[in-house]
Design a protein that fits this description.
There is one protein chain. This protein is α+β, with helices and mostly antiparallel strands. The protein has 2 helices and 4 strands, in the order E-H-H-E-E-E. It has one domain: YaeB-like fold, CATH 3.30.2310. Helix 1 runs antiparallel to helix 2.
């Protein structure tokens, strides 16, 4: 029987967490429960990513290290921008698919300092 891969610990850049909260607030102002749907789908999608982080494509035009990938968030125009290693799933952005491409790139090395974990 094949052993399941170890579950990655999740860490989220503070600005990414703020992006998700702001998007949820905006959607909730448009329709009751729509913001909570966004948060719920983000949580489910992060769990999927953590199980098979290399499944999704490298972010378009990304050539740096670490390898940054993205996964579309179902039913919403957002992508979860992340990278992973043997220990962590690092969420660096919840990026709207048609606004400010690449704004998150300065966050990639956020966890280079042990104090930030």
């Amino acid at each position: 029987m094949k052993k399941a891969p170890p579950k990655l610990k999740e860490r989220t850049h503070p600005d990414a967490a703020a992006e998700l909260r702001a998007a949820a607030k905006w959607y909730s102002s448009r329709k009751v429960d729509l913001g909570s749907d966004l948060v719920r789908l983000a949580r489910i999608t992060r769990k999927e990513i953590a199980l098979t982080p290399n499944r999704w494509a490298v972010f378009l035009d990304w050539t740096g290290t670490p390898v940054v990938r993205s996964r579309h968030l179902p039913k919403f125009p957002y992508r979860i921008i992340y990278y992973s290693d043997e220990k962590y799933l690092s969420i660096i952005a919840y990026a709207h698919e048609s606004r400010e491409p690449g704004f998150w790139q300065s966050r990639v090395n956020y966890w280079d300092s042990p104090a930030e974990e």
